[in-house]
UniProtKB/TrEMBL annotation, chains A, B:
InterPro entries: ArsR-like_HTH, HTH_ArsR_DNA-bd_dom, WH-like_DNA-bd_sf, WH_DNA-bd_sf
GO molecular function: DNA-binding transcription factor activity
Organism (species): Lacisediminihabitans profunda
SUPFAM superfamilies, A to Z: Winged helix' DNA-binding domain
Domain HTH arsR-type intervals: 1-94
Protein name stated in the entry: Winged helix-turn-helix transcriptional regulator
Superkingdom of this protein's organism: Bacteria
PANTHER family on file: SLL0088 PROTEIN, TRANSCRIPTIONAL REGULATORY PROTEIN
Amino acid sequence: MNESEDRLDRAFLALADPVRRSLIARLSRGEATVNELAEPFVISKQAVSRHIQVLEAAGLITRTRDGQRRPCHLAPAALESLTAWIDTYRLIAERQYRRLDTVLNTMKEKES
Amino acid sequence: MNESEDRLDRAFLALADPVRRSLIARLSRGEATVNELAEPFVISKQAVSRHIQVLEAAGLITRTRDGQRRPCHLAPAALESLTAWIDTYRLIAERQYRRLDTVLNTMKEKES
DNA sequence: ACCGTAATCAACCTATCTGTTTATCAACTA
DNA sequence: TAGTTGATAAACAGATAGGTTGATTACGGT
């Protein structure tokens, strides 16, 4: 039960689809229902509905109830946890590269 | 030919696997060969080799040649482009939420 | 109560992912 | 040159992703 690993799996997988990224982009401008979200797409509303379920299961969006509507809202905190994961390793790697640069420059100086 | 969309697809999909994320974590501490990367895993070296190909196709790592070895290096720039994408929409959404808070607070003030 | 609408469920199809095993390629070493 | 080692290719099997269509649930309006 690697809960946090599973969460990362689901979140990154959720973002690995252009339709779902497009839904995220749309929701960043404010809440929207399934019908509203599905409108611009060629695929069926059912397909969009399942994309939304994927995003919700990944914790990237939340849903409220308003009569028969189920408005979707973006969950910025979940997005932040993804950038946090990525940045952890990016920053370590960048430090490595800077250190390597320093070593190379030192060697070059000693040469001359 | 949505090249940049395809790149995002491949990059996020590449991160949607615990083995590949583990490889990223390892590579953040410095370059490593396929054998070195495969050693801690239970799965076969061939499987790890293909995970590495996925990471390379996604642009998340690069490879050099050193005799019969093919050392892998992390590509921080690619990771940065991912955080840039996520942060774009996260920040917009956060602004939305702050604006909503402001509206709600204003309404509360007028009430009293 | 009835009808329309928002949304989902269920069954099905196809393509892709991820692992395996076996075989092959390419480079170093004695 | 023969043998070893790093790495990959090829072919296969099982699981899952993502689309379709048709049926169903649940709420609202008249």
